[in-house]
Write a structure and sequence with these properties.
homodimer, 517 residues, alpha/beta, Transferase, Pyrimidine Nucleoside Phosphorylase, Chain A, domain 3, Pyrimidine Nucleoside Phosphorylase, Chain A, domain 2, 4 domains, six-stranded mixed sheet, four-stranded antiparallel sheet, 18 strands
């Protein structure tokens, strides 16, 4: 603590000096740059002007005109776009300062954010306090940190990890500086799947079962980033998934729950901003991943939560040891956050259901909910298991088995399907698109038993076929692990809306998708 | 190695898929953004257009018009600056593509750089190979990496360190992808000081001594970033320090050496680019620091090198243990690079010489070289020690003491001064500026012995007084550690060119600059 104070003092001293040094400018002539760059304010100086004011690229500067001032991030150009007495202002900056003809802009250096020191601490392997994490996330949400600073924070969390207390603090901070969906219910349910398994659309079966029983389940889901479909993409085939907080509360009040795209509400603004800098290296620092998931549950008021960790050679989690470690962390953090929680480790070795791609996945879900003959058993069973584990968190059921019996009744009786139709209606029903008319049937070249399926390749085939943007594109698999197959029998069919897409599909090593012995 | 290959294969597969997905665009209408952003090509899409093409901010995209194509980094704007069929191109991008009226720009995703995987490896604590480091630095110099990617690389090196082999590889890569100053001499000398000590201008004494003896010493120095003066700033008072490679070779041929600003030649381009992202957090990953120093020596063909590590409570290196660790690393890396090297640990507890600030430091240097009565003894002695240690690396002298005798003779005889005048003449002599006319004399409030001097505060006083931009500004100290002082006697004088500056100086806690008991 002493160290922190002296750090703070020195920083103050330096900041004061720097402010003094650059205050000598008498005002620069603004030049408007007709581009919007998002919420951050950016100003540009030429190299010589910057040097004279002792300013560097990425410095924070205070821009002042009359009584208005804002803090902006400085860019420096080596080229002659600006004169030495000019300052370039992007559209948002220009407008915020209400620049008028003849105005002069006074420039001085802004104090460096104190959180830079905390971020450096994390990179050095130190543990951050709740206050420090709060301060970082506050600055992230306020767009006060540059991409470089946010990247250092992500790096520190990735290289040195976040302990449970830090993760809890990060969760709370993300919730604090984001929107919330409040439900004044004693029981609000939610689920989350760590992902990496194609076709894993259990949410669309679990939510109807749970809400048919009268519970509240406000489910936000993500869209595909590198996969052939996210739950939000698949749900979007049937219903509108872009809904704001007001509308979502109305829907939940009416039908008990929804399945919507998380990006339609600003529940975890900090998380979204950090994900942007995580994207280039696809970094998933565990503490951030946990906080991100927990914050999303927290911000919809969920207090009964089931987490699904699929393991498989190509799932996000590859080994049982890793899954158990993650399970322990979830439980420990859930406890600290006073959430009732179960974490179930599931089989992620092969796709769940038969369809991979938005529309094909929808067919699977509908078939399960309608108890159709060709409903994929694995999707049905996994959904029932997740629903019953979630129900049994309430202590209203004698056992998980008792809860499962109830869940099965809801599904078998058609109540879940009726409830799903109500949810679709409440969100705004859509017309089903057509399935891709161009097909490629891939047959087995030998007789045998399916030993393994290459999930990543199946996903890649569906992507190449056009999913998720072409909603009728994807892969339908006929065989799961353990199934017997005859020589010449269909293994899978690829659907595409655009014929050219099948050419891209054929470039992939299709014969390695199934391992048959 | 197997892992590396499969990683590479998968990446290729993914990249192929992504390329296919985004190739569907039929061409966008370009809109020129009249700003230059440096050497990197940048294009902007609106959010909807980006989503339709499955592109994300910071993605690399190939822009194609006719037969010309370039790789650019993608920005995405949430606002309506562009229509869905438009693409914004910054000035450099527009010009490079030679866009003409009616042209359409085809956009496709570019392969992700393979080095992203290496950078992630480093963040995960793995050791990088020479090839991997080479590939990263090649991309850094070619502006192929975004700031976020470079920041991750710096973070990995900072959080997990670089071992000696990695540091050697980094040194060689920086040299390989930068300019070189080649001297076909058997002995090329150089020195480097780790820094953090105000007034430490030994270079300006050592170079004249060494070159007066007929050796080659091509010294590149840095400017102040947060200190009141760098060697380049101080030398610039007397001579031109912005010289290109051709001119520097000419000067060295004529007078044996120079003292120039490193930024005038592009000797370590990769280093400069990495320093830009290190700046916001002021990160000094040790391996990068070592590689940066060694690369600069290497790129001027130096093979006899002395490194000065000052230690003190406010120097860059604070403890003897840390200094010894750094010393060992320098020696070990020097050996691997086949450089003759000595690393000397010196006293960095107080300023060297009496002046702090460009002109005041010049006075000290000139006084030492001219053997003036008021020449600061510490600057003289330290310079002689460094020069003699450097000379004794050549094995032309029986001992360090013998070398020191020679160095002292060169200095005492005035030969060093004559040589310094020749160097100044060769670089381009300047007229001396005036010393700041506004002064503040700070007197001791008690009698006693100087126990400590606050280096950082002295530096801050000089900065607040206007150094280094106001070259006549700075601090002149009258007392060093161990000196006796009377009550009311002058401790130091602050010089400023601008009267207002003294007000800023007076806001600092001047009474804590000296500790007297």
């Amino acid at each position: 603590m002493k160290n922190y104070k002296s750090q703070k003092k020195l920083l103050k001293l330096f900041n004061k000096t720097l402010t003094n040094i650059s205050m000598k400018t008498e005002g620069l002539t603004p030049k408007r740059i007709p581009i919007r760059v998002g919420s951050r304010y950016i100003a540009i100086l030429n190299e010589k002007a910057a040097k004279q004011m002792d300013l560097h690229a990425a410095d924070r500067v205070i821009l002042k005109v009359g009584k208005r001032d804002i803090t902006a991030i400085l860019d420096i150009t080596e080229k002659k776009d600006f004169k030495d007495n000019q300052i370039g202002l992007y559209a948002e900056t220009w407008e915020k300062l209400e620049v008028k003809r003849g105005d002069k802009i006074k420039v001085s250096i802004a104090p460096k954010p104190l959180v830079d020191a905390f971020i450096k601490d994390k990179l050095e392997g130190k543990t951050l306090t709740e206050e420090q994490i709060n301060a970082i996330i506050k600055d992230v949400v306020a767009d006060d940190l540059s991409d470089v600073e946010m990247t250092y924070f992500v790096s520190g969390c990735f290289a040195n990890g976040l302990n449970d207390d830090e993760t809890v603090a990060l969760t709370k901070a993300i919730v604090k500086y984001g929107d919330k969906l409040e439900f004044k219910k004693k029981i609000v349910m939610d689920k989350h799947c760590i992902g990496g398994v194609p076709g894993n659309r259990t949410t669309m079966v679990v939510v109807p079962i749970i809400t048919a029983l009268g519970y509240t389940m406000p489910k936000t889901s993500s869209r595909a980033i590198t996969s052939p479909s996210g739950t939000a993409d698949t749900m979007e085939i049937l219903a509108n998934v872009v809904n704001d907080a007001t509308k979502l509360k109305k829907i939940a009040k009416k039908v008990g729950g929804f399945i919507t795209w998380g990006g339609g509400v600003d529940l975890a603004s900090a998380d979204d901003k950090l994900i942007r800098v995580r994207y280039p290296l696809k970094l998933d620092p565990q503490g951030m991943l946990l906080a991100s998931i927990m914050a999303k549950k927290f911000s919809v008021s969920a207090n009964h939560v089931i987490i699904d960790i699929p393991i498989g050679p190509q799932a996000k989690v590859k080994t049982m040891a890793k899954a158990k470690q993650l399970q322990q962390r979830f439980l420990s953090i859930g406890k600290k956050l006073k959430m009732k929680m179960k974490v179930v480790i599931t089989d992620g070795a092969e796709p769940i259901g038969n369809g991979v791609g938005p529309l094909l996945e929808c067919f699977d879900v509908i078939n399960v909910l309608k108890n159709a003959e060709n409903a994929p058993k694995d999707l049905r069973e996994k959904s029932l298991t997740l629903a019953s584990k979630l129900l049994s968190l309430t202590s209203k059921y004698k056992s998980e088995a008792a809860a499962k019996k109830i869940a099965r009744e809801v599904l078998d009786s058609g109540k879940a399907w009726t409830q799903f139709e109500k949810i679709i209606e409440a969100q705004g029903k859509k017309n089903l698109p057509k399935i891709g008319e161009h097909t490629l049937h891939f047959k087995s070249t030998k007789k045998g038993i399916v030993k393994a399926i290459d999930n990543k390749l199946i996903a890649l085939i569906a992507r190449n076929a056009g999913a998720p943007l072409d909603s009728g594109a994807g892969v339908y698999i006929y065989k799961h692990i353990g199934d017997t197959i005859e020589k010449g029998e269909n293994l899978f069919t690829v659907y595409a809306e655009n014929k050219d897409r099948l050419k891209y599909v054929q470039k992939l090593p299709l014969d390695t998708a199934y391992k048959i012995n």
